[in-house]
Amino acid sequence: MPAVYGIDLIAKRDRKIKMDRSIVKFWNVHYQTLEEVEEAERLKKQKEEEEARKNAERLAKEEAQESEMHAQQEDKKKQMNEAYNPKTGAYSGHYGKNPVRDEDQKQQIHAILNEKPEPFEHAMATLQAQEG
């Protein structure tokens, strides 16, 4: 039967002195089991996949916003080109084609048109005569 020696106080003291003088301290060393290592790797992979998924979603969202912004800019350019009046050299082609929604503007228009009603009525009568 092999002899089993216990650790005496001198051996404990020597071990403590050796550990205290060493660079790596025993209280800072953590020995991981295989299960802990595998679990840490699994969590790391899961976190990386989650970040990759979020990045892909973010990039898709940014790309959609960018394409929408580009489409809006193209529409605006198209409207500006349609609105160009070569006779006047100005972008006033859409002026007066949409109904007035602002009450202040409606009042201003009414005041201007009713300022001198005779020329306006004469112009409207001339236009109606040309049409009919």
Strand content: under 5%
What Rg, in angstroms, do the CA atoms define?
43 Å
Poorly predicted spans: none
Mean pLDDT: 84
State the assembly state of the protein chains.
single chain
Helix content: 55-70%
Number of helices: 4
**Order of helices and strands, N to C?**
HHHH
Biggest sheet layout: none
Number of strands: 0
Distance between the termini: 130 Å
**Global morphology:** rod-shaped
Structural class: mainly alpha
Describe this structure in words.
The relative contact order is 0.03. The protein is built from four helices and no strands. It has helices at 9-21, 34-83, 103-113, 117-131. It starts with 8 loop residues before the first helix and ends with a helix. The model has no long low-confidence stretch (mean pLDDT 84). The chain is mainly α and 132 residues long. It is rod-shaped.
